[in-house]
Amino acid sequence: MGMTISLVTAGACALINLWLAFRIGQIRRAHSIFVGDGGDDRLVRRMRAQANFVEYAPFVLILIALIEYSSGTGIALWIAAGLFLIARILHPLGMDGWMPGRMIGTALTLLLLLGLGGYAIALPFLARNPIPDQGVAAPPPAV
């Protein structure tokens, strides 16, 4: 099976997103806030934590998948994926008040994005056997 790191990380991200949504729902139910934030600061922070996750997770998942596709599964990519998941769990805990979680989660996410992005840019130039450009296949001629 290929793309194991990408599959595991994407699945874990889906579960983290569900957890973030559940945390928002808890406050909505407790305070009968069905639309918007109702001026509740805790709800705003939880909504922003989920929005922040949704803003960063796609880029990291795409980078992990493309790097894995280009160079295969490796321990460094497993570590990067694991650190990303840890960062994305720490960040919302920090948004709830544990400030080290927010700082560590944010810094780790940004460093991983920088590292994965830089590696993705460098990878084609570093590869011994570069992946051939597949191009776009032309449609079959009309009959």
From TrEMBL:
<feature type="transmembrane region" description="Helical">
    <location>
        <begin position="103"/>
        <end position="127"/>
    </location>
</feature>
<dbReference type="GO" id="GO:0016020">
    <property type="term" value="C:membrane"/>
</dbReference>
<keyword id="KW-0812">Transmembrane</keyword>
<feature type="transmembrane region" description="Helical">
    <location>
        <begin position="6"/>
        <end position="22"/>
    </location>
</feature>
<feature type="transmembrane region" description="Helical">
    <location>
        <begin position="75"/>
        <end position="91"/>
    </location>
</feature>
<dbReference type="Pfam" id="PF01124">
    <property type="entry name" value="MAPEG"/>
</dbReference>
<protein>
    <recommendedName>
        <fullName>MAPEG family protein</fullName>
    </recommendedName>
</protein>
<dbReference type="InterPro" id="IPR023352">
    <property type="entry name" value="MAPEG-like_dom_sf"/>
</dbReference>
<feature type="transmembrane region" description="Helical">
    <location>
        <begin position="53"/>
        <end position="69"/>
    </location>
</feature>
<dbReference type="InterPro" id="IPR001129">
    <property type="entry name" value="Membr-assoc_MAPEG"/>
</dbReference>
<keyword id="KW-1133">Transmembrane helix</keyword>
<keyword id="KW-0472">Membrane</keyword>
